[in-house]
Design brief:
461 residues, alpha+beta, Uridine Diphospho-n-acetylenolpyruvylglucosamine Reductase, domain 2, Uridine Diphospho-n-acetylenolpyruvylglucosamine Reductase, domain 3, Alpha-Beta Plaits, 4 domains, eight-stranded antiparallel β-sheet, 16 helices, binds (2R)-2-hydroxypentanedioic acid, binds zinc ion
Length: 461
């Protein structure tokens, strides 16, 4: 089938307004927001139902045209954009954005794939409940993308990755059938839990069209504190203290380097309200029981007394808490403004983070002198965004190798939360054991033997 026939059949199924074939309208779907992975779609289709998604899959399958599912296109690994061949069909879920149901007693929310994460958070809040998935891109990221990427974010420490919040899923399979597992059950041990295959598969095994997410009671009180510490080892001691004193009420424990803070000051004009240190920690805790603030103040007192923290502040209001969070949330954008960087989204066993940071720094100083490290991230999860600014003609591949070899030496992962996409497809093949890779390929072949869905992502052909 010629592309013209493909276009005609897709237009026949969806109507002309839902098929973008040329012009500037294609641009936002063709490239990721960092403009690192420019692609060229054959066309963009915008279905409005799972049945339409299934119809698109069947038509593309007959035509042998690959499909790239896309949500808010906020990913950092190039997983949702087409290649440059001009043959891949981008399937945008952004017209399927309805919230179908919020159940404040059963604690569930059902939404279509294209629903913006922030809209879903707000719907849960309006019902007095909490959807705890929270990340900097939440104003654009969609539920389908968040599920397909198994997104992390700042609340993983308490609530887990997206996977732990998915109760039910509807997925269109590469053969064009719809697997409907939209059950709002807390317990469902009837057979294989097949939805887990699709969570985090980055659109390579199926297309998520709707999800039922688990909600939580909304904590009535929260405290946010920013502290400075002398080094990452002190930050870990602070985590231990916070766990002792605030227990399971800690919802975020974020590490920010002085370099990150300097970038945020330079490019976003935001300044830390506490004395400069080499490292900063942003802590949030939340609870419905009284006494949280007192406990947090006591914890801070102990941190100073034991010389774990150098300086610190507890937000006095919601507005102040938002100001503290803004420091953390502007790191990515400020880094982008500073220039070119090589991102590493790594995890190592939590207690190894200080040693990893030290040794990776030494290895870079020796192997790629002049690079600057912008390290920050989710210390409570052992997940550091170890981004290296390479503005002086450094070879990104050399930098990558140094950092990822160090991650491997620590028994870590080269992608803690951002996924593999196309950015790390070669790196995954290099660092994962061949038996694990072969198992992944067997799953891919079983579900998508023609490699119709998102080829070139996660697994090399
Ligand atoms: C974050 O934690 C995001 O802010 C982005 O995962 C990290 O820019 C990055 O590398
Ligand atoms: Zn992150």
């Amino acid at each position: 089938m010629m592309p013209r026939d493909l276009l005609e059949r897709l237009t026949g199924l969806l109507g002309p307004a839902a098929v973008l074939a040329e012009g500037p309208d294609l641009e936002p779907y063709a490239v990721d927001w960092r403009k690192l992975f420019p692609g060229k779609p054959a066309c963009v289709v915008r279905p409005s139902s799972a049945e339409q998604v299934a119809g698109i899959v069947r038509i593309c399958r007959e035509a042998g045209a690959a499909i790239v599912p896309q949500g808010g296109n906020t990913g950092l690994a190039g997983g949702a954009v087409p290649d440059a061949s001009g043959t891949q069909v981008v399937l945008s879920l952004n017209r399927m954005a309805a919230i179908r149901n919020v159940d404040p007693v059963g604690l569930t929310l059902e939404a279509e794939a294209g629903c913006i994460l922030k809209v879903a958070q707000d719907a849960a809040a309006a019902a007095g409940r909490l959807l705890p998935i929270s990340l900097a891109a939440e104003g654009s990221a969609t539920i389908g993308g968040v599920v397909a990427a198994n997104a992390g974010g700042v609340n993983v420490l308490r609530y887990g990755m997206t996977r732990s919040l998915v109760l039910g899923l509807e997925v269109v399979l590469p053969d064009g059938t719809i697997a409907n597992g939209l059950r709002r059950l807390r317990k469902d041990n009837a057979g294989y839990d097949w939805k887990q295959l699709f969570i985090g598969s980055e659109g390579t095994l199926g297309i998520v069209t709707a999800a039922i997410l688990r909600l939580l009671p909304r904590p009535k009180h929260s405290v946010t504190a920013l502290l400075s510490v002398v080094d990452p080892a002190a930050a870990l001691r602070l985590l231990e203290l916070a766990q002792d004193e605030l227990g399971d009420q800690i919802s975020a424990f974020e590490l920010i380097s002085a370099t990150s803070m300097q970038l945020v000051a330079k490019h976003a004009g935001l300044k830390t309200p506490i004395a400069e240190g080499e490292w900063f920690v942003l802590i949030e805790a939340a609870s419905s029981l009284a006494g949280l603030r007192e406990a947090a103040e006591a914890m801070l007192g102990m941190a100073f007394e034991r010389e774990i923290a150098l300086d610190g502040v507890i937000a006095e209001s919601g507005a102040q808490a938002a100001q503290l969070w803004a420091l953390r949330e502007h790191v990515t954008e400020s880094e982008a403004r500073e220039g070119k960087s090589v991102k590493h989204d790594v995890s190592v066993p939590l207690t190894e983070v200080p040693r990893f940071l030290h040794e990776a720094g030494e290895a870079l100083a020796a192997g790629a002198p002049g690079t600057r490290v912008n390290a920050f991230g989710h210390l409570g999860d052992g997940n550091i965004h170890y981004n290296v600014l390479v503005d002086h003609g450094h070879d990104p591949n050399v930098v990558n190798r140094i950092v990822h070899d160090m991650v491997a030496a620590f028994g870590g992962s080269i992608s803690a939360e951002h996924g593999i996409g196309q950015y790390r497809v070669g790196e995954l093949a290099r660092y994962r054991a061949s038996t694990e890779m072969e198992l992944a390929r067997r799953l891919k072949r079983a579900l998508d033997p023609e490699s119709l869905l998102n080829p070139g992502k996660v697994l090399l052909p």
